[in-house]
Write a structure and sequence with these properties.
heterodimer, A: alpha/beta, Rossmann fold, seven-stranded mixed sheet, 34% helix, B: mainly alpha, Methane Monooxygenase Hydroxylase, Chain G, domain 1, 7 helices, globular
């Protein structure tokens, strides 16, 4: 029986053509830029997909960020919707964390950092010189890559924000805020009997959920998460992801993640960054099944990054 | 995707992932080649009254079944190990679906081989063979072209396969009318004509399976599901 049909020889033909551009295994990252498809020229400010939404929480237009002479963000325009979970993905150094940190002016502390363009939260300029940055950061909370609890008790970690913002008048009110925040962070059952214990004695996953509770305690509208699970084990990661899903009912969440599977699991929309450009923004389902831009496709399928 | 003809699965950072996807593709095409040969041999066995060949086809179906199991296993392992996304995901999912079509085509070949043995035992006349040969070569070409479209990721060719299906249906209707005439002319032809009808029915199904494969090829290349979609809409998707 002849099993070597012409369709197989066509396949072999196709593969021999593909062999003209071999992709060596284990090539170094810094040589990647010399190869395709990474050297695809991206037109500045041109984003494929759906970067804009009706009635956005954040309205960001023509944002440019530079560290001295280096442009880290190149003319990015994006809307972030209310109560949506949006994931920022992209290879290291693509600007996703820089862009995230613009949303609550975390870049202010870097002297050489310059932010240009229009960044609005609820139609108010984030970078207005008269704006109270502390108030802004209370509205736009942040959770970092590594859990960073204060070297205080579990209770004091959560109560810290409400205290300095004067959110509670009585001890009982503060107790309520602490309990509610810990409950929302899924930590109450584990922490209720040891509220006076040092937070630094908790496991990594518990510490990260404590940091989320601490962020929630000041009733923010937005929570920024910069790789919140990269230091956590799979079970703690699953807990935090569950939490993100629950929190999305009441908060707008922006999450930077290196785990594409995590972006696929937790977000409604996904934004793909590449070398300071915002290449594609789409519904997460679209991005992970049929991305529109070849760079997005190459990245999420593990062809570079 | 700028140029679908250049689209390959061998450019991941993980070389082992490349190998797994290319292996999946190659094994699918091998199964396709085997199934094509089964259908070709079944039609040949019937029209040449070759009972030895018919027996071979009938026995050969086990090989097709084994390949189906092997390919499914491999696809499942790729999903478990690699969590493929985008075009890789579409390749794996499409292969899982198309393998079912190939296996069914294998079953149709076996069915035709069994009918060939029955017809051969009932005596040697060539009544209905013209129709079998005609529709047989038509659907074999469709199957071949659909596999070719898969190998080359050619959505236009897949679309051409889908358009052929209407013609096969017309030919099938015409052949059925001819056979009906034979049956009315002489009732002793009825048993034989019914067997031929079953053969034609099996061949017509092969055309349908080729279409399913073509639909999956369009899904792989264009990322859009064109099943149960009007032809104009499918044309628009392919033309994009």
């Amino acid at each position: 029986m002849n099993t070597m049909s012409p369709s197989i020889s066509a396949e072999a033909d196709m593969r021999s053509k593909g062999a003209a551009v071999p992709v060596p295994d284990g090539r170094r990252k810094d040589t990647l830029m010399e190869d395709k498809p990474e050297d695809t020229v991206i037109e500045e400010g041109k984003t494929v997909g759906k970067p804009f939404t009706a009635d956005p929480k954040f309205k960001l237009r023509n944002v440019d960020v530079s560290y001295g002479a280096d442009r880290a963000i190149k003319n990015i325009s994006l809307d972030i919707g209310r109560n949506e979970v949006i994931a920022f993905i992209g290879p290291s150094g693509c600007g996703k964390s820089t862009f995230l940190r613009c949303l609550n002016r975390m870049n202010d502390s870097i002297d050489i950092c310059r932010v240009k363009g229009s960044l609005e939260l609820d139609e108010q300029n984030i970078y207005d010189s008269k704006r109270d940055v502390v108030e802004l950061r209370a509205r736009v909370g942040m959770v970092f890559q590594k859990p960073n609890p204060f070297p205080k008790s579990i209770y004091d970690n959560v109560a810290y924000g409400p205290r300095i913002h004067g959110l509670a008048n009585r001890k009982s009110e503060l107790d309520d805020i602490v309990e509610n925040s810990l409950r929302k962070a899924g930590l109450w059952n584990e922490a209720k009997d040891r509220l006076d214990a040092m937070a630094t004695g908790m496991s990594g996953g518990q510490q990260q959920r404590l940091c989320i509770a601490r962020a929630i305690a000041v009733s923010p509208e937005v929570i920024l998460m910069d790789e919140p699970c990269s230091a956590l084990d799979p079970i703690a990661t699953a807990r935090v992801e569950e939490l993100i899903a629950e929190m999305s009912e009441s908060y707008t969440i922006v999450i930077v993640t290196h785990s594409m599977q995590q972006a696929a699991r937790v977000s409604n929309r996904t934004a793909y960054f590449h070398m300071g450009h915002l290449v594609e923004v789409n519904e997460t389902d679209t991005v992970f099944t049929s991305p529109q831009h070849p760079l997005t496709e190459s990245y999420i399928t593990g062809r570079f990054g | 995707m700028p140029n679908n003809k250049d689209q390959v699965y061998g450019d991941h950072i993980s070389q082992r992932f490349n190998n797994e996807l290319l292996e999946l593709k190659t094994r699918f095409l091998e199964m396709g080649g085997l199934v094509e040969a089964q259908i070709g041999s079944a039609v040949q066995a019937l029209t040449a009254n070759d009972s030895v060949l018919a027996e071979q086809v009938s026995a050969g179906d086990r090989g097709v079944d084994q390949m189906e199991i092997g390919i499914d296993e491999e696809a499942i392992l790729i999903i478990a190990r690699r969590q493929p996304a985008a075009r890789d995901l579409r390749l794996v999912i499409a292969v899982i679906k198309m393998v079912v079509d190939l296996e069914r085509v294998g079953d149709e070949a076996k069915k035709i081989a069994k009918l060939a043995l029955k017809l051969e035992a009932e005596g040697q006349t060539s009544l209905g063979y013209v129709e079998v040969r005609h529709i047989g070569s038509h659907v074999q070409a469709m199957l071949h072209d659909s596999l070719d479209a898969f190998a080359r990721l050619d959505a236009e060719q897949a679309l051409r396969v889908m358009k052929e299906d209407k013609r096969v249906d017309e030919e099938y209707q015409a052949a059925a009318r001819t056979l009906l005439t034979h049956m009315m002319e002489d009732t002793r032809n009825i048993s034989r004509c019914m067997s031929i009808m079953w053969v034609l029915r099996a061949l017509e199904r092969v055309g349908d399976h080729a279409c399913n494969i073509a639909e999956n090829v369009i899904f792989m290349v264009k990322g859009e599901d064109v099943r149960h979609t009007p032809m104009e809409e499918t044309e628009r998707v392919v033309g994009r």
